[in-house]
Every structure is written in C-alpha cells, then in structure tokens.
Amino acid sequence: MTPPAPFDAVTLEVIWRRMISAADEAAKTLQRTSFSTLVNESNDFACVITDADGHSLVQNTESIPSFNSCLPVTVQHFLKEIGRENMNPGDVYICNDPWVATGHLNDVTVAKPIFSNGKLAAFAASTAHAPDIGGKVRSVVAKELFEEGFQIPAMKLLDRGEPDHTLIKLFRAQVRTPDQTEGDLWAQLTGLALIGARVTELMDEYGLPDLTAFGEEIQGRSERAMRAAMTDVPDGRYEAHFDTDGFGDMPLHFQCAITVEGDRISVDFTGTSAQIPRAINCTMNYTFAMVSYALKCALLPDVPNNDGVFRCMEVSAPEGTIVNPKYPI
User: pTM of the full predicted structure?
Assistant: First the structure.
C-alpha cells in the first residue's frame, strides 16, 4: 500500500479544526440533552477524540482542563482491560475508577470506538460529573474509597449497541437521583455518537484509512512547539512549598521541585505529606493533568491540546503521598 502523502499546511489546519468542531458540537449536544445542572449550567464535563491507541487528538474548546489529560489514560485502560480484539462497532465502555479515570467516583467516563472499513480508527470519549454516585452526601467526608459511592470498573455499557441492563439497574439503585444520573449518562452517549458520525464523515471525505498519519502530524508539530517553548526557560531547579491546615491534627505539606533541562521539564513532589483518610487525596493521573495544564498555560497557551504537548513533561511523586495515593484510600 502506498503511504499517504504528507499533509500540506492548509489541509492539516482544515482537518484539525473540523475535528475540534466535532468535539465542540458533541459537547453542546451533551450539554443540551443532559438532565442535571452540573452539566448544562456548571460545564463540569469534557469531550475528546483520541487515535486508535488512546492518544489525544483534540478536545472540546470549553472542556475541563483536568479531564482532558485523564480521558486518554482511561481510553488506554479500556484497550488494556477489554482488549482491541473484543471491541466492536456500537460498543461503549464505562469506568469511574479514580486511579485510571479522574479524581473521584462522581466523574463517570465513557468511550466509544470509531471504526472505518472494519478497522479501529479512533475513540470518542467523555467525562461528566454525575449529580450523585451514592455514598456519603458530602464527598470530602468519606474516609475511604468505598464510602464515596458506586464503583464502576472498566467494562462495556453497550455491547454492539445493546445496553447492559443489569449494570444500569444497579447504577440506578445506588444513587439518590436515578433519573438525572442515568439521563446524563445517555446524554454523554449521544455526544459520542455525534463524534463518531462526524469523524467517519471526515475520514471518508479526505480518503483517510485511519487517523494515524494525521495524529502523528499534529502531535509532532505540537511536541516541537512545546519543546521550543521549554528551551526559552533557563535550565535549573526551581523549588516551592506551602502548608495547609488539613484536617484536625493532620496539617498538610506540599513540596514541589521543577527541573528544566533543555527541552524537557520534570516536576517532583517528593516531600509532600502522606495520604490521609479523607477524600482529598489526588491520584497520579489527576496530579499529572493539573500540572500539565499549568505548564501548558504558561508555555504554550495558543496551541490546542493534544498528546504531543505533554510528551516532554514528566511528573513524579512518591507512592502513598497525598498527590499519589495507594489504592484503595
């Protein structure tokens, strides 16, 4: 097979903007069809499109920054747990595990594989804050994950278009607002379906067998732009720390060291307080999302987010700290 010709600048920009528009249109669809004010008024959700390996391509313009980095992690977890060979057109996967999704159980992530000519080409994915997920009413009061609410491991919500009615029945039984919570979930799926339609239309129009070449082009360009921005920062180690009251007799210390070496930046939280039995611990994927967003805003604010922007960043923290807690706290 003849490899596709490199994208010229105009074609690349048109495809890129249309992909972003697909994510934006899905976001508006989710917002308008949702049942809860958390989505349709508070904007507590995000929609992204990834390539077939779960690496981010685009996001909706007004998405929650932390969700943008977490969603690809969850898609990659779906690939690992469900298996590429077990994915089919019409599937939708679901998960709210904070260690592979976002910060807490209320954030429900769903993803839909997009196929082109029988081949997995991309994923549409969305995270939205559910109006209720069971557990204790005040989320920070919980002393362990099991008190926070209904846990959903990586699994199929739809299998070839057929809903898992048992999962939905259990889901409704665990929450205080079953109609709103289920309604928001179906609104997310409506957004995913729209992304799937728009992406396949775009691929057909431009004769793209998959999104590999497109992804490599925009991710590569974005990575080079971020590395160039990093080289403008003087090499060195920059440290900062602060303390908070914490809970009761448990004050919390946050320690951060940023090391700049040419076109790479690493952030280390060694010295930060140990995790505590309260629902304010931040899992590592969420910690990375928050840090990468701050670096992105400071260094490359005008380039749309995608996987290439974050390849030259490294975030680390000792396991068992408040910014990298061990399961199941």
Answer: 0.95
Question: Which residues share a beta bridge with 278?
Answer: none
Q: Helix (H, G, I), strand (E, B), or coil: what is residue 6?
A: coil
Instruction: Retrieve residue 297's tokens.
Output: 């805003």
Tens of pLDDT, residue by residue over 15-39, are 999 999 999 999 999 999 999 999 9
Convert the pLDDT of each residue in 212-262 to its tens digit.
999 999 999 999 999 999 999 999 999 999 999 887 788 899 999 999 999
- Judging by beta carbons within 10 Å of its beta carbon (0-12, 13-18, 19+), is residue 43 exposed, middle or buried? middle
Pairing between β-strand 107-116 and β-strand 162-163 as defined by DSSP bridges: unpaired
CA 223 to chain centre: 19
Q: Are strands 236-247 and 250-261 parallel, antiparallel or unpaired?
A: antiparallel
Q: Are the beta carbons of 117 and 211 closer than 8 angstroms?
A: no
The residue among 59, 66, 42, 57 whose CA lies nearest residue 191 is: 59
Q: For residues 325 and 261, give the distance between their C-alpha atoms in angstroms, rounded to a whole number.
A: 28
Give, as one character, the DSSP assignment of residue 319. T
Q: What angle do CA 56, 62, 66 make, to 5 degrees?
A: 55
Question: Tell me, what amino acid is at 158?
Answer: L
Instruction: State residue 278's pLDDT score.
Output: 86
DSSP, residue by residue, 37-102: HHHHTT--EEEEEEETTS-EEEE-TT--HHHHHHHHHHHHHHHHHH-GGG--TT-EEEE--TTTSS
CB atoms within 10 A of CB 35: 18
HEC-encoded secondary structure of 262-303:
CCEEEEECCCCCECCCCCCCCCHHHHHHHHHHHHHHHHCCCC
Residue 5 is which amino acid? A
What pLDDT, on the 0 to 100 scale, is given for residue 246?
Answer: 84
Confidence check: pLDDT of 50 > 70: yes
